[in-house]
Design brief:
8-stranded parallel β-sheet, 191 residues, 24 strands, single chain
Amino acid sequence: PTASYNKFTPAIENLFEGINAGSDSWVIKLATAVDQTAGTITEVANGNGVHLWQCDSMTVKNNKARGHRDGIYLEFTGHSTVTGNLAEKNIRYGLHFMFSNGSRYAENTFRNNGSGVAVMYSNDVRMEDNRFEHNWGSAAYGLLCKGIEDSKVRGNIFVENTVGVFQEGCRASSLKKTPLSAMVGRSRWSR
């Protein structure tokens, strides 16, 4: 029932952190969190565009996050959906999931970030129909999966990433409908 959710649709510019939610259910839709100082400060001096901590049943939909430490960050945030977002030119990750079980992210674009997406120590995550583009650097991945279980990666496109997909310590997870031809340019698979 959407009526019981908080709804947040702002335009936020040049703040340390864009949107920070904790211990609640929210719908974050059509927000723009932009830090114009991107590239002039370090990741320690910059917050996240959307930061969700210890939440449940969140919806992050059709937002833009640019120039933050992580564009969208979920920690201990389960049963949530991240769809239709654009995360670009973020210092570290376009999207960063940690300890966020039963969540799904789909139809997002992660472009020109330090790394595209990191999904870590989570179970039952669905990663579908996303675009990972031009996430390039000495430690950059389109998609980094570390310590995840029972998760599915399918239908994603990887274009010009240092490493297309990197998996470490993952169990009972699958990479489907992502042919090597979907790893365009210099992207590659690493395990």
